[in-house]
Amino acid sequence: MTEARVIAGTGTGANRAIIVTGASRGIGAEIAAELARRGRRVACLSRTGARPDVADADALAERFLCIPCDVSREEDLRGAFKQVAERAGGIGGLVNNAGIHRDGPSRSFSTGDFEDVLRVNTLAVFVASREAYPYLVDAGSSLIVNIGSFFDRMGVKGGAAYCASKAAVAAITRCLAAEWGRKGIAVLNVAPGYIETDINRDYLNDPVHGEKVRARIATGRPGMPADIAKFVAVLFTERIAFLTGETICIDGGHSISL
Ligand code: NDP
To answer: Which of 60, 159, 182, 236 pairs as cysteine with 36 (C-beta 3.0–4.6 A)?
Structure first.
């Protein structure tokens, strides 16, 4: 099969690489892999620069361009994007997935921890989008997908920093979508519910906490990274240009169940 035939999607941006931050493991690794399975070239960014930790990584290796990049460092982002544009013939999309989770009682939660969460989960989303902007304009038609969280609308005890960081991602999504729509750039916020990854595996496997969470999810189980990855990949392959600025929750019915 020729390169041209395996490239899915429409618009001039479809031949260019999609950048996925936090692509070494968890949800980001699965998003990178799913995009690659659908024929896209994927730039996989993380602090380690490790290849996505997925079972078929060897088969997909030719489609991955792995680059070490700490998203909380502007110079890292700038350097990585330049490298991707040069080595992959341009940037056709961006998935702002890298994120960290810290929680604790608000009465003693440190300013430093709060700032760290905002720097990775929120500020990096804005900076990466801003740095991607000229490349995405050049692509003609493109998409930014932010990975937020259904916690953005919840009152979570001990979760002030994380919830605030994700609520801000939804706001950034709306503002960039309004500002860049006429440049052919759509911006969406995908907000997962509980997805089993390193970020929460211990919590979900704890007999008390895990059972409580399962009881509240309509589907009866937490999601898997593939649940999010498939949806994100579809957004890139079936570009719906009129869909922009929205937060789309994928949480197994958790936030709508009583
Ligand atoms: P993981 O902890 O499993 O993976 C996090 C990824 O981000 C890793 O690839 C890590 O790679 C990378 N990363 C962390 N910090 C940085 C940084 N400063 N610069 C670059 N890369 C970084 O997390 P998940 O897969 O669970 O989460 C992915 C996203 O989904 C996050 O934004 C999270 O908030 C969100 N989310 C997750 C939910 C869940 O239940 N799992 C629910 C709702 C939202 P490395 O260590 O190599 O840098």
So the answer is: 60
| Residue 190, number of CB atoms within 10 A of its CB | 23
- Mutation test of ligand 1: which of 45, 51, 81, 197 has the most ligand atoms closer than 8 Å to its C-beta? 197
Whether 34 contacts 233, CB under 8 Å = yes
Q: Is 173 in the pocket of ligand 1 (CB under 6 A)?
A: no
Computed on alpha carbons and rounded to an integer, the radius of gyration of the chain in Å comes to: 18
Tens of each residue's pLDDT in the chain, 258 residues? 333 333 344 445 778 999 999 999 999 999 999 999 999 999 999 999 999 999 999 999 999 999 999 999 999 999 999 999 999 999 999 999 999 999 999 999 999 999 999 999 999 999 999 999 999 999 999 999 999 999 999 999 999 999 999 999 999 999 999 999 999 999 999 999 999 999 999 999 999 999 999 999 999 999 999 999 999 999 999 999 999 999 999 999 999 998
Angle between helices 160-180 and 124-139 (to 10 degrees): 20
Q: Enter the pTM of the model.
A: 0.96
- Nearest atom in ligand 1 to the alpha carbon of residue 150 is 43
Contact 234, 163 (CB under 8 A): no
For the Cβ of 99 lying below 6 angstroms from any atom of ligand 1, the answer is: yes
Residue ranges of domains in the chain, CATH in brackets = 13-193+224-247 (3.40.50.720)
